[in-house]
UniProtKB/TrEMBL annotation:
UniProt xrefs under Pfam families: Ribosomal_S3_C
InterPro entries associated with the record: KH_dom-like_a/b (IPR015946), KH_sf_prok-type (IPR009019), Ribosomal_S3_C_sf (IPR036419), Ribosomal_uS3 (IPR057258), Ribosomal_uS3_bac-typ (IPR005704), Ribosomal_uS3_C (IPR001351), Ribosomal_uS3_CS (IPR018280)
Protein name: Small ribosomal subunit protein uS3c
Name of encoding gene: rps3
Keywords: Chloroplast, Plastid, Ribonucleoprotein, Ribosomal protein
Source organism: Halimeda tuna
Subcellular location: Plastid, Chloroplast
Similarity comment: Belongs to the universal ribosomal protein uS3 family.
Superkingdom of source: Eukaryota
């Protein structure tokens, strides 16, 4: 049997930083881990159309959060007029979203409103990522679109995204290489199988390779399909401190 390693956890401290950064004693460690997981889960559920890429959470104290959100559709979170957190801090929708996060935290802690709780929020628009590609595939698979047609639609969608991001002075949306794998009862077949496409290079064993990975499930009438996406952004010598 092949021994698989998660491509993001394999590179923590090399090309991938920790998504949660804080220190806690044994007494509070599990509480912080579960609280971070709750914040990410409820944001992904409530604001699914925002297409989150990453949610970084850091703490200085128990009542001081610093949350950095990378998403594609910023209009759902902070309005359509501004796309950077520096310009949107004064907007009403930004303040409402910040207040909503505080309410989520108080709801999880089952405590009353506390003015000492501080949430510093930064929101940035991200490029095309593995999570956005997986969202596109899952959305079409749940509409009963054949997986081969989904692959063709995805290529056209990425080409449009690449032209748009070049106009906005972003790098290529496709990166250096990409691999997509769909597993399950494809097109309703009785026997489950796998289908994949691959373009460019994808060195999974190279630690300096900055690989973006995402897994998501598509809930169809004939079963659950698993979608895995690997995207090679670049190969770098930069390392993160653990």
């Amino acid at each position: 049997m092949g021994q698989k390693v998660h491509p993001l956890g394999f590179r923590v401290g090399i090309t991938q930083p920790h998504l949660s950064q804080w220190y806690a004693s044994k007494r509070y460690y599990s509480q912080y881990v579960l609280e971070d997981n709750f914040i990410r889960t409820i944001l992904l559920k409530k604001y699914k159309r925002a297409n989150f890429s990453k949610i970084h959470i850091s703490r200085k104290t128990d009542d001081h959060f610093e949350i950095v959100i990378h998403a594609q559709n910023l209009g759902i979170l902070i309005g359509t007029k501004s796309e950077k957190s520096e310009k949107s801090e004064k907007s009403e929708k930004f303040k409402l979203f910040q207040k909503q996060i505080k309410e989520f935290i108080f709801h999880y802690r089952q405590s009353e409103w506390n003015s000492k709780l501080r949430v510093v929020l930064h929101i940035f628009r991200c490029k095309t990522s593995a999570s956005s590609i997986a969202d596109f595939i899952v959305e079409h698979l749940e509409r009963r679109v054949p997986y081969k047609v989904v692959f063709n639609l995805l290529k056209k969608h990425l080409q449009r995204q690449e032209r748009q991001e070049r106009q906005e002075h972003f790098d290529s949306a496709l990166g250096i290489g990409m691999k997509i794998q769909i597993s399950g009862r494809l097109n309703g077949a009785e026997i489950a199988r796998q289908a994949s496409i691959r373009e460019g290079r994808l060195p999974l064993q190279t630690l300096q390779a900055h690989i973006d990975y995402h897994f998501q499930q598509a809930y169809t009438m004939y079963g659950i399909l698993g979608v895995k996406v690997w995207v090679l952004k670049n190969v770098t010598t930069k390392t993160y401190k653990i």
